[in-house]
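We include the pair:
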Amino acid sequence: MWRDKQEGRPPASKRPGPVVDSPAIAALKKEVVQLKVALADKALEADFFKGALQRVEDRRRRSGSSGDPASTTTSQK
């Protein structure tokens, strides 16, 4: 309103409507949305596995296990 006058733009009611995207642009926008969803899913998976690994490491530390295989006695031939 006052900013339109200040910047020499026509009022919002006189501006042209939204620009209609071409089919190629619409397809690209759809692909971007799909990729964002896929990226969000992968980020959730990564967070889940990081948390699971942290819990395993915490349990290992509490139990005093180093994670090394247990030593066994074997006969030398």
